[in-house]
Write a structure and sequence with these properties.
Function: Catalyzes the first step in hexosamine metabolism, converting fructose-6P into glucosamine-6P using glutamine as a nitrogen source.
EC number: 2.6.1.16
Oligomer: single chain
Keywords: Aminotransferase, Cytoplasm, Glutamine amidotransferase, Repeat, Transferase
Number of strands: 26
Distance between the termini: 11 Å
Mean pLDDT: 93
Subcellular location: Cytoplasm
Shape: globular
Number of helices: 17
Low-confidence stretches: none
InterPro entries: GATase_2_dom (IPR017932), GFAT (IPR005855), GFAT_N (IPR047084), GlmS/AgaS_SIS (IPR035466), GlmS/FrlB_SIS (IPR035490), Ntn_hydrolases_N (IPR029055), SIS_dom (IPR001347), SIS_dom_sf (IPR046348)
């Protein structure tokens, strides 16, 4: 969750660090700090609870001395509340050593007791200060930051990324990662470290991926990577496929508004290069035909919004590839001893590729002999590297915490995967109609944005004082009902629930009272007249009890008009493609309602973009 930046080079590191942290604000945080070794060789540090602006104001009052070596951090509180004392960096070795940390050190209590017995006094409640104190003690014994760092990380348990610098060794930043993200940025006469490429993409798009249990040392002219035992490692290079401008608002009122509007482009990019001669062919999956033919089961594992994309993927893969699919929440998956083996394909979904629960599920699956495939939006991330294959969504950077374009791109990638598997398994003889549907999705989403955005936004403004909203859907509409409710909860902080419409009479209908707003996702009668009629019956049931019904239905569906207070139209689409269109009005609604309440739609309270702890 935390943001991490490291820099060595000729430029003032304070400016580099603050700009990098600003690009990492989307990750979610509650305090910020930097440490810089100045030109006279002294280490200066400043940290503050609150947003990055608080730290900037503090530095404006009394700036740190200029220096070309530095580390910066935005913290999301785990051990200890969001206070100045608990903010990073933490100092040791008579304030000559600074450490920042992302993750959780699980054995910190034992180490803390050891250090207390050694006479160490602690100033914070954090597990990070324990690592700093250990590193300070090791440095006093070795006089070598890299050697001391290696000795310390081998004693730590849990998930962590650590960065450290020492004023006795200016021009050097050392980092390590275990189950937590860290990437290297390669510049000319300067080098960078970041928890995300956004930390340095303004300066370079050339990057190196650091693997599990590896240590990196950067100087202005060199990068060295070893494993925790000290054996040299050749890191994997990659080029960031977007530039810094892609992560700017570009005149939009919020990143979320920008990203909602970017969905046509995101989906077009996800599809691009994966359609050949009227069929879906995913080049990244070349050579895996035997795997797809041989599997007897697919498990899709994910968390939050990605798990709702997975539910849509279940319908698509089962229909096209004719193989049973289970959807598992990643944080439950490995704790219940699931039955998996070499005939199981485990598909993981993560926008960041660093979601810790999902990463642990992937590792668990591999340990038990399953083959693994990831769907991810972030190059150089851990989950793709831990998987046998990866399908990148190419949605571009998503900065707002509440996912929108990444969700649509994930569904699109799952549709592609289902059709690819269907072709390989021989269960889809002619995919030309579905390929045409895929190609039409970007234009259809653009139509929804152009034709319904103001209508939906006005509806949200009228409902700004609403205390509860319900969402109903059947078939592929059910996951979209769940996602619509989650979006509203995430950014407007009001009660919202999504239900399978058929469950109404089994309990949820008790919530219906006069005036209760209910969104109903109505499937096309062209695909299943039976399912459509069932949903219309559900509408009648809640309308009879006084609900205010807002219907999302395809254009031309006259059957819903007598029973709806409001109708939001989406273009005609195939059954499996409707979810990508139907979710857009729900995203707009949540965003507009939260904005009407004066809330920050990009950084909702208590949430982080990349959840890198279990």
């Amino acid at each position: 969750m935390c943001g991490i930046v490291g820099y060595v080079g000729p430029r003032p590191s304070q400016d580099i660090l603050l700009a990098g942290l600003a690009r990492l604000e989307y990750r979610g945080y509650d305090s910020a700090g930097i440490a810089v070794i100045d030109e006279s060789g002294d280490l200066g540090m400043r940290k503050k609870a609150g947003k990055l602006s608080v730290l900037r104001d503090s530095l404006g009052d009394a700036t740190l001395a200029a220096g070309s070596t530095g580390i910066g951090h935005t913290r999301w509180a785990t051990h200890g509340g969001p206070t100045d004392e608990n903010a990073h960096p933490h100092l040791a070795d008579d304030d000559k050593l600074a450490v920042i940390h992302n993750g959780i050190i699980e054995n910190f209590a034992v180490l803390r007791d050891e250090l207390l017995a050694d006479g160490v006094a602690f100033l914070s409640e954090t597990d990070t200060e324990v690592a700093a104190a250990l590193l300070g003690r090791e440095y006093r014994e070795t006089g070598d930051l890299e050697k001391a760092f290696r000795n310390v990380v081998n004693r730590l348990e849990g998930a962590f990324t650590l960065l450290a610098l020492h004023q006795d060794q200016p021009g050097l930043v050392v980092g390590a990662r275990r189950n937590s993200p860290l990437v290297i940025g390669l510049g000319e006469g300067e080098n960078f470290l970041g928890s995300d490429v956004a930390a340095f993409v303004e300066h370079t798009r050339n990057a190196l991926a650091i693997g599990q249990d590896q240590i990196v040392s950067i100087t202005p002219d060199a990068v060295t990577v070893t494993d925790f035992a000290g054996t040299p490692v050749e890191p994997e290079p990659f080029e960031v496929s977007w530039d810094a401008a892609a992560a700017d608002k570009g005149g939009w009122s919020s990143f979320m508004a920008k990203e909602v509007s970017e969905q046509p482009e995101a989906i077009a990019n996800t599809i691009r290069g994966r359609l050949q001669d009227g069929q879906v062919v995913i080049p990244e999956l070349d050579g895996l035909d035997d795997l797809f033919v041989g599997i007897n089961r697919v498990i899709i594992t994910a968390c939050g919004t990605a798990s709702y994309a997975a539910l849509v993927g279940k319908y698509a893969i089962e229909q096209w590839a004719r193989v049973p699919v289970d959807v598992e929440l990643a944080h439950e998956f490995r704790y219940r001893d699931p039955v998996i083996g070499d005939d199981t394909l485990v598909v993981s979904i993560s926008q960041s590729g660093e979601t810790m629960d999902t990463l642990m599920a992937v590792k668990y699956a591999r340990e038990r002999g399953a083959r693994t495939l990831s769907i991810c939006n972030t190059q150089g991330a851990t989950i793709p590297r831990e998987s046998d294959a990866v399908v990148y969504t190419h949605a571009g950077p998503e900065v707002a915490v509440a996912s929108t374009k990444a969700f649509s791109a994930q569904i699109t990638a799952l549709l592609l995967l289902g059709l690819h598997m269907g072709r390989v398994r021989g269960t889809v003889a002619d995919a030309s109609t579905d390929v045409a549907e895929l190609q039409a999705l970007p234009d259809k989403i653009a139509r929804v944005l152009n034709e319904e955005q103001e209508h939906v936004a006005q509806l949200a403004r009228w409902m700004a004082d609403t205390r509860s909203v319900l969402f109903l859907g059947r078939h592929v509409g059910y996951p979209i009902a769940l996602e619509g409710a989650l979006k509203l909860k995430e950014i407007s902080y009001i009660h919202a629930e999504g239900f399978a419409a058929g469950e109404l009479k089994h309990g949820p209908i008790a919530l219906i009272e006069p005036g209760q707003p209910v969104f109903v996702l109505v499937p096309s009668p062209r695909h299943s007249a039976l399912v459509h009629s069932k949903v219309v019956s559900n509408i009648q049931e809640i309308r009879a009890r006084g609900a205010r019904v807002i219907v999302v239905a395809e254009e031309g569906d006259a059957a819903v008009l007598p029973y709806a207070d409001e109708v939001i139209h989406i273009p005609l689409a195939g059954a499996m493609f409707e979810p990508v269109l139907a979710v857009v009005p729900l995203q707009i609604f949540a965003m507009a309602l939260a904005t009407a309440k004066g809330l920050d739609v990009d950084q909702p309270r208590n949430l982080a973009k990349s959840v890198t702890v279990e």
